[in-house]
Design a protein that fits this description.
about 200 residues; 6-stranded antiparallel sheet; mainly beta; globular
């Protein structure tokens, strides 16, 4: 048809017809890792490279936080109970995405301690949109992650979102962190940027 094909998991239905026979159908699921798709445009979040712009936060822990050569480095000795580490980065208006951008991308190097990682986006009234990061094994290796805005869900423990949708230009802060399953936890994040895949 000439229409652009979305670079994301989708279903394709194929219909075959022959004279004197009922149509035959086949449905195929195409799975594409967004990390393998080259964006049409990128917008670097440059302030993420400066340590003083971040606001580290965690549950009870001995937390170490540093930004070295543009890489965010987090390590924590958790003290039991509810374990979480989520440093927040407030965003000035110039570093927020406009409505043409499709998502957020970054490279994460997880620790060897199993954890559930999340990315979170906060709007001005405190309404927060969250997503669990897929395919981040506890292997200590770099993984490029791309999360599309329409995959984020409102975190119902945060204030109600007035219009029920994520307003991209209103994103005033981001967080990338995790809930470790052990007491020794660390990870690194770099290359944080907004990405666009279609006009």
């Amino acid at each position: 048809s000439g229409a652009p094909i979305p670079a994301r998991p989708m279903l394709v239905k194929i219909t075959a017809r022959a004279p004197g026979m009922d149509p035959c159908f086949s449905v195929v699921r195409i799975n594409t890792s967004m990390a393998d798709v080259t964006p049409l445009a990128r917008k670097e979040i440059a302030i993420a490279k400066e340590q003083g712009n971040w606001k580290p936060a965690s549950s009870a822990a001995d937390l170490k936080f540093a930004v070295t050569d543009g890489k965010v480095e987090v390590s924590a000795k958790m003290k039991g109970g509810d374990r979480w580490v989520y440093p927040w980065l407030p965003l000035p208006a110039a570093d927020r995405p406009d409505d043409s951008f499709d998502g957020i991308a970054f490279t994460i190097v997880p620790s060897t301690t199993p954890a559930t990682y999340h990315a979170m986006l906060k709007e001005p009234n405190g309404a927060t949109w969250s997503i669990s990061l897929p395919d981040v094994p506890a292997d200590g290796k770099p993984h490029r992650v791309v999360m599309l805005f329409d995959e984020f869900a409102w975190a119902n423990y945060t204030p109600h979102d007035v219009n029920g949708k994520l307003d991209r230009p209103a994103i005033e802060a981001i967080a990338i962190g995790g809930n470790p399953k052990g007491d020794d936890f660390s990870y690194r994040v770099s290359g944080i940027e907004w990405v666009k895949f279609a006009e």
